[in-house]
Design goal:
With 136 residues, the chain is of the alpha+beta class. The protein contains five helices and four strands; from the N terminus they run αβαβαβααβ. 16% of the residues are buried.
Length: 136
């Protein structure tokens, strides 16, 4: 772990001093900064650590309009659009969009409930996505 602001490039030198491979996790971080701030953080990862993996959550515009204690800084309805930032989407799921192996272990009632909740959360909900950092 490295302490520092995700939107400032200073942390990258400390990370680069350790050999890869690199996995970056941004959970409940970049969604609260401006889109420019989020883009700056991704730019540093893309430019300094090509070939790394980024796990990042995004919030869709419909979800961002819901009342909350802290406002969302930017929205992303389709994580695939972050290809323009040099990120290749590998997988993206809502909280309720379980992998088939996990869904199979649920009771029929819970399978139905998670399917309904997943459907309700699409089109603007919160997603966790895995990206390969390819560079531009």
């Amino acid at each position: 772990m490295v302490a520092g602001s995700a939107t400032e490039p200073d942390w990258a030198a400390a990370v680069a001093a350790v050999p890869g491979p690199y996995l970056f996790v941004s959970e409940a971080v970049l969604i609260y900064v401006s889109e420019d701030g989020a883009r700056s953080a991704v730019d540093v990862i893309r430019d300094r650590f090509p070939g790394s993996v980024l796990l990042m959550d995004t919030v869709g515009s419909a979800e961002a309009r819901r009342p909350r204690a802290v406002n969302v800084g930017w929205t992303c309805d389709d994580p695939g659009e972050l290809a323009a930032w040099g990120l290749r989407l590998r997988d993206s799921r809502t909280l309720w969009d379980l992998p088939p192996q996990a869904r199979a272990r649920l009771t029929p009632g819970r399978r139905l409930l998670t399917a309904l909740l997943d459907r309700a959360s699409r089109g603007g909900g919160t997603r966790l996505s895995r990206f390969d950092v390819d560079g531009l």
